[in-house]
């Protein structure tokens, strides 16, 4: 009798362990009186490791927050794992964060394929999957994926900004488009189509694509130039953007050149292509480039620089990603401060999706983060820039795009 | 005329450890291992069950590579390609043709067998390092092929394909536990298959090719056929692992199958033990747990320092060098050495 009781107890214990994760659901997982546990994955190794400074700068940001006493008396426990930009590894690390470390939510998990691998898992588990570090458009589907929200302007937003810019300034233009042939490149075109409506088909007279594996895009540029287009929308990564600029100079094609923000970098694109050739290129931006002399005495940039020196001295002051990390970290701080003591997952998600014109440092002046239960795209404003041969000068008003 | 029959039984079978006959020890160990594998899912969290499932998947892939490299002596840096082929075969069957996941495993294996055999035919004229280079090309090309626009309708391009994990048909198992048992079952079948393959005539031929290809040829072994078939079988194993891996991760994308995966399988094989079937299991554990362990060690010593992340792979490298230095014949070799010291 005693033995059978023992067995029953053992069996019950085993079962309870198996169900443990299901039953151990308290009101506020990952939250204690003194701590908020936040999970993250970043590519600290592997092909995309140049992005990992974002994860590191956010860690440094939390160190600063904790030194100041935390948020509402709670310190931040930041658990950031390496996924090597490999989706199966992301899945493992995210499950570890959610099931073993029992984080309250994840924040700024980096990469499109990596986040895709856990998109459904997070929504099934109902764990907030906040402010992802990727520009894909699919992170803003509040109906289908109510627990996932992006952060930076998505590629369609930028496409729409370009579309509106063309309609307003060059209503009679003949437009040529070059885009990378994947979801990133196609997203831009979709955004343009949405902004331009039926004018898109009338105005766009030539389209070319390239594969990311192509050695050069010279033939595409020649064919676009021969079409006689006077506005060129260039949706390419830095390597190909530089090739395009060089080739255009070589064959003397001088259209209005709209270049996507992905490649709008002096170091990565304009210098290799030749600063003289790059003059006049129009692009968009949404946060301050710390290299730009315009911000030398800007209080936000000065504060950012002081923080970098104290909390992330090994970080590169010239690397824009460190400013990005600072800005996105402050978005998260805003949500946590607003939440006060109600740090349940449902409430955190609700607050992340109801940020009303929140100002975050290092965004361009006048810009803010704004979300609603039907708008899961926090940053939808950008400003046009024109490269003057030494730096990208902002012009015109902040532009907001209509992506619901 | 009759031969003196002093050694009618394999002498190894008369050795004893602590008074118990060696074969009995082996059986006892295997039974204990099986029981442990069967009971564990009820004793640990779902997350650990998920990790153990991944270990089993890697173990199968390492076993596949081991058949080729450990037994036949042919190098391959291209096994991530077979893994990807298996994973995508399973994913496409589920996604486009609504095949139940259980029925995708065998087709994935067969596709990879054919792929391996066909690749093996020309490639196996190459020896050693040249073969390694040819297979390296395969590993590098595969993710690009998966992204290729004309295959996009099938492969989903860069976005990959979502899969659904099956619900458990057994009421007292949750879906993680169910998947674990399914993978374990497939793995056990493949393990027994590899065991039989390598212990018969075929196995001796494979080992002969590894140890001395010229002598093997002289003895009448059709070396190129054996090499190609082994390449196919190796592909089969790795493809099955890929299909299971896709189901476990519930997602496939080109970035899941980079050249690094090949390197990981190679590491798992060498650490587990070249030419050892049980070593593959140890290799699976090494692939999954040692990087995690390195991360934990760095976390423990450097906690909040954001720059310390770079040290993870330094720690991992140290563990790897340590392992290779201390147990040069892999973990299976270590076990063999221990048994050698203990027998009387």
Find the count of extended strands of chain A (DSSP E, 2+ residues). Answer: 11
In whole angstroms, the N-to-C terminal distance of chain A is 67 Å
What is the percent of helical residues of chain A? Answer: 40-55%
Which word captures the global form of chain B?
globular
Mean pLDDT of chain B: 87
- The number of helical runs of chain A is 14
Assign a percent range to the helix content of chain B: over 70%
Highest CATH level, the class of the largest domain in chain A: Alpha Beta
CATH class of chain B: Mainly Alpha
The value of Rg of chain B in angstroms is 21 Å
CATH topology of the largest domain in chain A: Rossmann fold
Q: Mind describing the biggest β-sheet of chain B?
A: 2 strands, antiparallel
Number of helices of chain B: 14
Based on the coordinates given, report the CATH architecture of chain B: Orthogonal Bundle
Oligomer: heterodimer
Poorly predicted runs of chain A are 9-25
Order of helices and strands of chain B: EEHHHHHHEHHHHEHHHH
| Helix and strand sequence of chain A | HEHEHEHEHEHHEHEHEHHEHHHEE
